[in-house]
């Protein structure tokens, strides 16, 4: 008779639902590039050490490798948004976990507008000359707008 396989660890580590690729996708989708970093064309990696509580919420983040120009603060803001899944631990232990997290800042590509939309506007005014029997004239205004896309 064979014994059941032991668990790999007494206390199981938290993980992001979907794995590391989903975590990096989430981080990249949440980045709001700081204006100061855009002006100085700052790019690179900010490394953080994050503390995760027993509920999977990031409670603290410390910058290990700084990038400056507002990128550190943005990386810490994103770290606070991440929600981890914490597997059940024996005896209902409430353990704090520490993980290193890397947030990569890549300058956004500038979009080149092929040409602004051009519009052509024609104004046509028609004034009817008063007839001998009529004392009032009629005035008509027409406006045709053609937009090229």
Helices, strands, pairings?
Elements (H helix, E strand, L loop, with lengths): L18 H12 L4 H5 L4 E9 L5 E8 L5 H11 L15 E9 L12 E10 L11 E10 L1
Antiparallel strand pairs: 1-2, 1-3, 4-5
Rg over alpha carbons: 32 Å
In the CATH hierarchy, the architecture of the largest domain is: 2-Layer Sandwich
Give the neighbour order of strands across the main sheet.
2-1-3
Number of domains: 2
Provide a count of the helices. 3
* Strand coverage percent: 25-35%
Give the SSE order as H and E letters. Answer: HHEEHEEE
CATH topology of the largest domain: Fusion Protein Consisting Of Minor Coat Protein, Glycine Rich Linker, Tola, And A His Tag, Chain: A, Domain 2
Question: Regarding CATH, which class of the largest domain?
Answer: Alpha Beta
- Overall geometry: elongated
Summarize the structure in words.
The chain has 149 residues and is an alpha+beta fold. The chain has two domains: 19-105, Fusion Protein Consisting Of Minor Coat Protein, Glycine Rich Linker, Tola, And A His Tag, Chain: A, Domain 2 (2-Layer Sandwich); 118-148, no CATH class. Helices cover 19% and strands 31% of the residues. A hairpin with a 5-residue loop joins β1 (44-52) and β2. The longest helix has 12 residues, at 19-30. It starts with 18 loop residues before the first helix and ends with a strand.
